[in-house]
User: Fold these one by one.
Assistant:
Number 1:
Amino acid sequence: MSTILIIDDEKAIRKTLSEILTFEGYTINEAADGEEGLKLFKEKTYDVVLCDIKMPKIDGLEFLLKATEHNADVPVIMISGHGNIETAVEAVKKGAYDFIQKPPDLNRLLITIRNAKDKNNLVSETKSLKRRVARVQEMIGDSPQLRKIKETIEKVAPTDARIMITGDNGVGKELVARWVHEKSNRSEGPLVEVNCAAIPSELIESELFGHEKGSFTSAIKQRIGKFEQAHGGTLFLDEIGDMSLSAQAKVLRALQEGKITRVGADKDINVDVRVIAATNKDLMQEVEQKKFRLDLYHRLSVILMHVPSLNERINDIPLLVDQFLKDICSDYGIPKKTISDQSIQQLQNYNWTGNIRELRNVVERLVILSGKSITKDDVASYVIPK
Ligand SMILES: Nc1ncnc2c1ncn2[C@@H]1O[C@H](COP(=O)(O)OP(=O)(O)OP(=O)(O)O)[C@@H](O)[C@H]1O
Ligand SMILES: [Mg+2]
């Protein structure tokens, strides 16, 4: 059932609207002026508000501004008399959903309300969908090493400091980057990821900075680069050690000046982007071999975060295995399998060169090949020691 708030100082209008809309199945609350309307508006979330323009105390326009400040998602439909259509138009420009004229035409009134309600539902649906999709996978583990990583995330996330995340394959560098964004003041903004190793070196500049139509042979359309896409949010430069030297020079300029230029363009564009980089290479060694610029290295590594490999934190294995069993069994639509303590101990004795990614694959293999309960024999036969 939808609830509508009617704000009008003319009792007759309130009464007519209220009767019609109650008949249509809406629940109605009434207010005789903007001040009372605002008070009711703040008490609960209405589906739609109908609001007169000329009223004592707080008028319609002022109500609209204060109401949208409080909750911009509730559609407000203005009711305008003959004399104030211009004000009604102005109200729409300032965020009112629409306006209807007095005396209200019944059909138009009902259609406008229905549309406003639908739009509102759509908006909140999209929002909760975004929230659900955006949820980042939990970081499982209770080892001192992992706890330290989590503490560092809490500390550095709300700052705008650049972060360099290092660590072996599959240790969770990308996950750390996502949590930093999620816990930062930019979490409502975009998180844009670029895998520098996956992009051919002749395309990386256009990928990062965009290009104008016709700037090179295959540039058929204008393209917005990742830096611009990340404006107001975070840019995650993954595998930064694989970036070409010429791209490094341009990234350096973007970081120094907060400006980028699209390939083939002559004007600069200001960008507000927090950069997080990650690599599994030893960048200092790359610097010595002249494959990575030292100045860029210093710009990027204001905060250094090293994610330890799984072999250094085998105490995390029991919790990780438990979580992966839960996730994988639920993906396969089967009841969660159990695993013996001995099997877990065996897993703790392996050499995890592929780290957490490898552990997850091993658990998946065990789920597929073992019975309801995973035994140490299963581990011995299906997990090949290295
Ligand atoms: N602490 C953790 N808890 C649960 N899952 C984790 C954890 N750390 C990593 N993972 C999972 O392990 C996999 C590998 O992690 P991720 O991709 O972040 O690693 P990476 O360090 O970026 O690897 P690469 O160097 O290969 O790019 C992902 O599926 C990730 O969700
Ligand atoms: Mg990665």
Note: The chain has 16 helices and 16 strands.
Number 2:
Amino acid sequence: MGVPAYLLRTYWWAYVDPRAVRLFERQWLVNLILWGNFARLRDAALDALGGRLAGRTLQIACVYGDLTARLRARLAPGGSLDVVDVLRVQLENLARKLPGDPRVGLLHGDSSALDLESGSYDRALLFFLLHEQPAEVRRRTLSEAMRVLKPGGRLVIVDYHRPARCHPLFLPMLAILKTLEPFALDLWRHDIAEWLPPDAALSRCTAFGGLYQMLTVRKAVCEA
Ligand SMILES: C[S@@+](CC[C@H](N)C(=O)[O-])C[C@H]1O[C@@H](n2cnc3c(N)ncnc32)[C@H](O)[C@@H]1O
């Protein structure tokens, strides 16, 4: 499986180059990039996934910092966690953070074409992945996340959101995202629901003056 062109072109400095992994694998740095909101957003995502995670949990794409370790800590007896990422260097980094745990599977794969069985996970997490993807890849990622969920399963999404114009970070973030993360402004201009299947039931909250959003999406029990 090749590295997607958008990752190579836009995010080589953040994820692809092994030196980037060594640089960014610092929780204080990720926290700084999120203006001090990493722990708050991480914990909100974990709470939205559930207190004790029975059954099968899927994290779509690795995340710097301790999100996956905290997710693993919530596994109920018999519960399991799979993490899928398109970059082997990221999976190797995660393996160093979570050595030898048979409950955790590290899977090499593309979020937009998951090699996973339909209806096989109780819940899934997308933490700051969608803003990094071109619209068509984003749409397929969401469709794949919904496909692999069991009926009644839950997808939690945490990502950027357009803040009010009077937000003190409106202009700085506009400049940062325009320069470094060109696909992210899609999430300022469009509701994530536009890329979701129409029958998905969702709830949303925003944080930090609207700069971030969290969506909880429930897969319909009876498919139309
Ligand atoms: C979840 S996002 C960003 C998370 C957050 N900014 C952080 O602190 O790490 C980064 C991850 O997404 C992965 N990724 C990007 N595109 C992907 C795709 N199409 N399929 C699977 N993983 C992907 C990258 O390899 C990287 O490990």
Note: The chain has a mean pLDDT of 95.
